[in-house]
Design brief:
Largest sheet: 7 strands, mixed
Number of helices: 0
Order of helices and strands: EEEEEEEEEEE
Strand content: over 45%
Oligomer: single chain
Distance between the termini: 37 Å
Number of strands: 11
Amino acid sequence: DVQLVESGGGSVQSGRSLILSCKVTGGPKLTFCMGWFRQAPGKEREGVAQKTTSSGSTSYADSVKGRFTISHDNAKTTLYLQMNSLEPKDTGMYYCAADYGPCWHGRAYNYWGEGTQVTVS
């Protein structure tokens, strides 16, 4: 089965950068949709970015375009989220998610990590 474990969260000041990692184990990844989501206190979970492993196609929420970059290593065992120019509104629990097949807007994911907290002040 597919398992996901996030790391890299922390507390940073506005304008700084963080990189989140998500270790992915289990399951073939020839065509895999991998994504990052976040949830702020009192708010619904929102999609941040997603990437289709086979095509390299990516998409981002408007709120993070130009500041965040989603990527994965060649073996597709680790998913990253490079976050630059962080703002207090980026604060939240960040989750990675994955599932078989390509990404599309609004697709559901069956596999989720436990999350890593990002706090920007």
